[in-house]
Specification:
Elements: H1 2-11, H2 13-21, E1 29-32, H3 37-47, E2 55-61, H4 67-82, E3 87-91, H5 94-101, H6 105-124, E4 128-130, H7 135-148, H8 151-154, E5 161-163, E6 173-175, H9 183-192, H10 209-224, H11 228-257, E7 258-261, E8 264-268, H12 269-273, H13 278-286, H14 293-303, E9 313-315, E10 319-323, E11 327-332, E12 341-346, E13 352-357, E14 363-368, E15 374-377, E16 394-397, E17 401-405, E18 408-416, E19 429-433, E20 441-445, E21 451-452, E22 461-462, H15 463-469, H16 474-479, E23 481-485, H17 490-493, E24 498-499, E25 503-504, E26 516-525
Parallel strand pairs: 1-2, 1-4, 2-3, 4-6
Antiparallel strand pairs: 5-6, 7-8, 8-11, 9-10, 10-11, 12-13, 13-14, 14-15, 16-20, 17-18, 18-26, 19-26, 20-23, 21-22, 23-24, 24-25
Length: 526
């Protein structure tokens, strides 16, 4: 146990010595100490190093176990005082944070503690955070990732040193000095050295997946292979070596099949499918964009079928993939200037629950039936939900100014009109009679069913037919924005006022009675 810990510290020795030399004996490592056996042993090991590493201790009270949580805090506080170690303590209302953000208690606790650690490091100059993850934790992570379907990267397990979660660009490192130690070794060290610690009673409960694996599955594995923890950790290191080889191979192939136009990624399908291992290559390319294994499986099935490839859509949390005849196009999902994120979830009865979340955390929730009716609408403090628009990423325009939507810059001006002003505007610019188009109006993405009466025509035309006339690609359609007049019934009937940057509806044209105009200019993708 001590030998494994010292070996790890020695591996990090050059880095730690460099930090210590520049710190004038100020702490350089922040130990995350919960009061459990793992973290208390880690603290004892750091305090007993022959060549001391200056450190401080941080303890989070998540207020999840009442008096037990307070007793954990008291133990850590007493240890830090006894050893004259700088101590940071905080508490969180973890359940409230989880409820407000719609995440699990586990995820809430993770975000809260790592966010706090990052703040402490920034404030006090700590160069790394040390956590007490051990070989058992690594084996659990490997199997959970494998069950979830995380690819080769997921089964490489944890690393002794990585970037700090929640602050990957801060330069602060996350250290795992007990990663080579099994839980049995840690418990043996605690017994032999009379290390005080507290047992979290929830560890014996199998409510959480990790606990279920630890309490119910690992005992079975141990009957098959008593050394299975060491075996899984050894295999994880082999997988990590294999991943490096595969990543080098795929990076070389990726240069042949992928091109980028700004933020738009384009994958050449003939070039992709000519590669011997194209299935893994497409995973390698798309995994950073959040496309999960089920989406990738559906995409693979499409590419190997006799079906028409073009015109299909696949979604991840933040990106959309469109298929064209000879390429796959990946682009970021549209978000408006107001910061609305649109999430669609389908519950068991087949309803789509559409949630738009603005930057201050308020939710607009709509339950949409299969026939398209909106059942429930709640309004947030920023933007009133306009009937017929809920569920679309959109931004309200309340007056002259500039805004951004779907990577495009939209400039709105109100100008006096005179007969000498040209009706024909530069590409990307449209003018509207200000007496007919009134504020506020909305810019949003187009959707099936949108129609307009194009300038100079008498009859209405579907936007989808206009796209055909304009020879729009699927990517052009994905980035298309429309303007909706919200002062009448047009929003509900999907009668749009303009295809921005291209054409206005005839009812908004300038006439001899026009006294002022609204001029809207849309720039290309930023």
């Amino acid at each position: 146990m001590q030998r494994n810990f010292k070996e790890t510290i020695e591996e990090l020795g050059g880095l730690i010595n460099e930090w210590s030399a520049s710190s004038a004996d100020a702490p350089v490592v922040l130990l995350a100490v919960s009061g459990g056996v793992d973290s208390m042993c880690m603290a004892e090991l750091f305090s007993s190093l022959e060549e001391p590493v200056p450190f401080a201790v941080a303890h989070c009270n998540f207020r999840l176990r009442g008096e037990d949580s307070d007793a954990d805090q008291a133990l850590v506080t007493g240890w830090a005082e006894k050893h004259s170690v700088p101590l940071h303590v905080t508490s969180f209302d973890t359940e409230d944070y989880a409820a407000r953000n719609g995440i699990s208690i586990e995820m809430a606790a993770r975000e809260l503690r790592y966010g706090w650690f990052a703040g402490l490091c920034s404030q006090h100059g700590y160069r790394a955070v040390a956590v007490a993850h051990n070989a058992n934790d690594n084996a659990e992570t490997l199997l959970l990732n494998l069950l979830r379907g995380s690819g080769l990267r997921g089964v490489t397990g944890m690393s002794v040193m990585s970037s700090l979660p929640c602050a990957p660009d801060s330069g602060v490192l996350l250290l795992r000095p007990l990663l080579k130690c099994t839980r049995k070794q840690i418990e043996g060290y605690a017994f032999a050295h009379k290390v005080q610690y507290r047992e979290d009673r929830t560890n014996a409960m199998s409510e959480y997946r990790r606990n279920r694996l630890r309490n119910e599955v690992f005992p079975i594995f141990e009957t098959i292979n008593p050394s299975f923890i060491r075996t899984l950790n050894r295999e994880a290191s082999y997988f990590e070596d294999a991943l490096d080889i595969v990543e080098d191979y795929c990076s070389g192939l990726q240069k042949r099949v992928v091109s980028k136009d700004g933020d738009v990624l384009r994958i050449d399908l003939p070039a992709l499918l000519s590669c011997a291992h194209w299935r893994y290559l497409i995973y390698h390319i798309l995994e950073p964009y959040g496309f999960n294994s089920s989406v990738l499986e559906s995409l693979e099935n499409l590419l190997t079928s006799d079906r028409t490839i073009s015109g299909k859509r696949f979604d991840s949390a933040g990106y959309v993939l469109r298929t064209e005849r000879r390429s796959l196009v990946v682009m970021e999902k549209m978000t408006g200037q107001a910061g609305h994120d649109v999430v669609v979830t389908r519950d068991r009865d087949g309803h789509d629950d559409v949630v738009t979340r603005d930057r201050d955390g308020h939710d607009d929730v709509v339950t949409r039936d299969r026939d398209g009716h909106d059942d429930v609408v709640t309004r947030d403090r920023d933007v009133a939900v306009i009937p017929g628009l809920t569920g679309d990423p959109f931004i309200p325009v309340r007056g002259a100014g500039a805004c951004h939507c779907n990577g495009r810059r939209i400039v709105v001006e109100v100008l006096p009109w005179s007969p000498g002003m040209p009706l024909k505007q530069p590409a990307g610019t449209l003018i509207f009679d200000a007496d007919r188009l009134k504020f506020p109006f909305v810019c949003r993405g187009w959707r099936n069913g949108d129609w307009m009466i194009p300038l100079g025509m008498r009859g209405k035309k579907k936007l989808s037919d206009m796209f055909t006339d304009l020879k729009y690609s699927s990517m052009d359609k994905e980035s298309a924005l429309v303007l909706v007049d919200c002062n009448g019934d047009m929003a509900e009937k999907q009668h749009i006022a303009a295809l921005l940057g291209v054409r206005i509806d005839d009812r908004y044209k300038v006439s001899e009675k026009t006294t002022s105009v609204i001029r809207i200019t849309m720039s290309g993708l930023q």
